[in-house]
Design goal:
The protein is α+β, with helices and mostly antiparallel strands. It has two domains: 1-113; 116-266, Thrombin, subunit H (Beta Barrel). The chain is built from two helices and twelve strands. β3 (148-151) and β4 (154-162) form a beta hairpin.
C-alpha cells in the first residue's frame, strides 16, 4: 500500500505531464483552421483549468506543510531558550540568597571574635525523635567532638561525632541537648533543654526572679562549652507554680532549624567560666 504522501506526489507528476502533453498538442495545431482551434480550446481549457488548480492546490499543501514544520521547530527552539533562561534566573536567585546568608554569617563571625570554620549542611536525621544534621567539615578542618556550633541567629548545637571530612551536630532543640543559660535582662539562670516539638524549655529558674514573656535568653558560658552571651531564644510562656522553688519557662528559638544551610563551628577552646550569683 502506498502512503498518502506518495499518492499525492504521483498525482501531481501525472497532472503536470498531462498538462505538458496537452499544451504541446495545442501548440502544433496553432496552424490549423480557426474553427478547429476554437473547438479545441473550448474542450481543452476546462481541463487545463482543473490541472492548474490541482497543481496550485498541491503546491499550497506543500508550502503550508513546510511552514508548519518550520513553526514547530521554532517553537521547540523558543521553548528550549525559555527553559535555559529560567534555569539561569533560578541560579542567580539562589546565588543572591546564598550571598545574603553568608554575609550575615560573616558579620556575626566578626562580632563573635572567635576562631571558627564555616560548614555547609549536607544531611539531616529523618527521624522525628532526633534533631541532628551532618556538615561537610571534619577533623581535617580542625573540628572535634564537643565544639559549639553557632549561626547568625544564635546557638545552633554541639558537635557529637567527627570523621575526616564530616561532622554530626546535635541541635539545641534535640531532647538530649542542654545549655546553661541566662535571662539577659535580669541574669536569672537556668538550663535550656530541647523538646520534640522543636521548642525549648528553660528549667530550674528560681521563682524569686520576675520573668516576662519576650525576655531574651542567652548562653551563660558556665557549661564550659558555649561562648557567653550568645542568643538562644525568647520567652513565650511563663509557668510559675504556687509551690516549689522553681518556675518553668517555654522558649522559642530565634533560629529556624528547618531552613538551616550554613553554620559556624567554634574552634577556640572554651573560656574559664565566671561565677554568677543567682
Amino acid at each position: 500500500m502506498f502512503s498518502k504522501k506518495m499518492v499525492m506526489i504521483v498525482g501531481a507528476i501525472v497532472l503536470i505531464a498531462v498538462n505538458v502533453i496537452v499544451l504541446s498538442v495545442n501548440s502544433k495545431r496553432q496552424t490549423s483552421s480557426t474553427g478547429i482551434g476554437r473547438v479545441t480550446i473550448s474542450i481543452i481549457s476546462p481541463f487545463q483549468e482543473v490541472v492548474s488548480n490541482s497543481i496550485n492546490f498541491v503546491k499550497n499543501i506543500w508550502k503550508h506543510y513546510f511552514d508548519l514544520v518550520s513553526v514547530s521547530k521554532e517553537n521547540v527552539r523558543l521553548n528550549r531558550s525559555l527553559q535555559e533562561a529560567e534555569a539561569r534566573n533560578n541560579q542567580l536567585i539562589e546565588m543572591e540568597l546564598s550571598h545574603a546568608r553568608l554575609k550575615k554569617l560573616f558579620e556575626f563571625k566578626e562580632a563573635l571574635q572567635k576562631k571558627v570554620v564555616a560548614a555547609e549542611v549536607i544531611g539531616r536525621d529523618p527521624s522525628p525523635w532526633f534533631k541532628t544534621i551532618i556538615v561537610n567539615k571534619g577533623s581535617q578542618a580542625g573540628v572535634a567532638r564537643g565544639m559549639p556550633v553557632v549561626i547568625a541567629e544564635g546557638i545552633a548545637g554541639l558537635v557529637t561525632e567527627v570523621s575526616a571530612k564530616y561532622a554530626k551536630i546535635l541541635l539545641v532543640i534535640d531532647q538530649n541537648s542542654a545549655v546553661d543559660a541566662l535571662i539577659q535582662r535580669n541574669r536569672a539562670r537556668g538550663i535550656v533543654k530541647g523538646e520534640a516539638s522543636g521548642r525549648l524549655l528553660f528549667q530550674y529558674v528560681l521563682r524569686k526572679h520576675d520573668i516576662h514573656v519576650g525576655d531574651v535568653v542567652v548562653s551563660s558560658g558556665l557549661d564550659g562549652v558555649f561562648p557567653k552571651g550568645i542568643r538562644i531564644g525568647y520567652v513565650d510562656e511563663v509557668n510559675r507554680p504556687d509551690s516549689g522553688i522553681f518556675q518553668q519557662l517555654s522558649v522559642t528559638p530565634y533560629a529556624d532549624f528547618e531552613k538551616l544551610e550554613e553554620v559556624l563551628i567554634v574552634l577556640d577552646p572554651p573560656e574559664k567560666p565566671d561565677i554568677v550569683d543567682q
